[in-house]
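Forwarding these from the shared drive since the link keeps breaking.
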Amino acid sequence: MYGVLMIDIDSTALTNEDVSLLKQAQVGGVILFARNVANAAQVRTLCDNIRCHNPDILIGVDQEGGRVARLRDGFTPLPAMGKLGELFDHNPTQALSCAYDCGYLMAAEVLAVGIDLSFAPVLDRDGISQVIGDRSFHEDPQVIVALATQFMRGMRAAGMATTGKHFPGHGAIAPDSHVAEAIDNRSLDEILASDMQPFAQTLPWLDALMPAHVIFSQVDDKPAGFSKVWLKDIIRDQLKFDGVLFSDDLCMAGAQAAGDISARVRAAIEAGCDIALVCNDRVAAHEAAKAAQELPYPNQSRIKTMCGQVPSWQGDLESTCRQFEYWQQAKDNVLNTFFNAQSDSSLFETENSETLDPTAYR
């Protein structure tokens, strides 16, 4: 049975404490961070070991491209999605083709090391947000729709389910919900007409959504991830979305309004989330696992749609990726377009030094 919690682990190999948590009845997922990654072979061994201890588990990662990339050494780099938007402004046809290639390439390499899904794509508009920025494809909702659709087509072609984040949009407010309370005072009509359009228009390609830890004060006094108005009334009833709802990390500052971690988990699940993420706080993970015992299990068939088509390991990343028929072409296209086919050792250094990963908040 898939449980309602997605937790993290300490390092590049499982500890006894990790194993104890993984065996908790309501732990249904693990999210990997950079500290869990040494190289491709190590990640595949880690994922295989996780599944040995808990076969009914989803393994996820944030492999968006640009600054947000947990898998680096030996993996093909991806541009920030904003680079696709910049390319679209000059050459829409090439940008749309590259968006497909980026989605396919990302999914193939993530699946190759045993990870089911990357929480992608970001569907937020590029606005004034401190944490979104070039993680967004563009500021124009219609450009986001066009590029994100192609990116998700590539993901699905490689065998990975898609997750749109951060519903209904995080780009229009400056505060970073990782470290501060974030409040958006716009009306529902304004949000529906702008930030929510990328989500609404790409629903046929979305397998999951992740709501923002943002309070949209004219709609509800709770962050979207704890709001029945957003999750049940709007996502389920109005948009008719039947995919998975993942909470964003409940240890983020933007989630503190719901109380302690036990209260946050209950609030997220009772509001309509299927799986609650508890990351980077081991004490909180234990408390969440205890609190989750009182909660019902999520819809099992819905959760299973997020399981990736993980290929058999062939001894190294390249050999394993060659089982994906389009991987080499997608890789060549991405490198030639965005990185001028530089040597692998320098590819992740193309971003400016000041553009650090905005999600590395702990």
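-- next protein --
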Amino acid sequence: MRDTRESRLLLVLLIAIAFALITVDIRAGEESPVDGARQAAAAVFGPVEEGVATAVDPVANAIGAVRDSGERHNRIATLERENAALKAKLGSEGQTRSRIHELDEMLKRAGAGQYGIKGAEVIAIGAAQGFSWTVTIDAGSKDGIERDMTVLNGDGLVGRVSTVGPDTATVVLANDPDFTVGTRLEKTGELGFATGQGDRALSVQMLNGKAKVSPGDRLVTFGSRGNKPFVPGVPIGEVVKVDPSRGDLTRTVWVRPFVGFSRLDIVGVVVMPPREDPRDAVLPPKPEAPKPTPTVTVTVTPSGSAGVPAKPADD
């Protein structure tokens, strides 16, 4: 339509009529004269609006889904973090229980031998100090640790302190090839010297070549003069093999250490020796051998044959 004077007058007239109809419709309420026209328009344009809404709804749903997916992703990430935290807590609680058990066993050994100990944690392993089998503990001279002190844990002899710093110390383990400790055999008291063999059983030279030794016998430390580097009575290990005696002055036996050197964690350094030699008191009681199950032997006596009459009883 061209922009002329007549078109402008027509537009103004239509606007005026529209306002007039709106005013009449509002004032008339439910009895409005344009109500029929409104219903007719709804009947004509209603399906069109519904189709447009149907076409638009998937787009709106998709937008909502994208928005919700972000929220779900954040929720999943939160749940995953909470799950990881719970797993870490459970793992740390299990580790804590294990360490408490180790500490409890170590205190039992120290109490049985009347050793005054300083607890420490293994913080490093390796041959950095020039030894084959060593560990570093988080206790040093500030904690009263000195060179040539005995180190033990809940299982038995761990080693001896070799070097000391202000806050840390190096411990040579009992399975080191250069490690030697005096031993005493349980019950009989036979003496010997144990030498480390790395990841193999300790080699023990019994001073008495005719000493009676059997697999399962246990050994403890004999002790050193002045209780350095070894205090007496610390469990060492159990005999697993005895070399045959050939009439030599000494005899070799092989001993499995009580301590697992590859899984050390909590240890104790003996800073105060016992007043008396505990002998075998630090060794735990041996488990009782299972009692044999009694057997019952049933003997079946065959009855007389059918063709032979039974012997009559005496009158």
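The chain is about 35% helix and 25% strand. Residues 3 and 274 are 118 Å apart (CA to CA).

- D.
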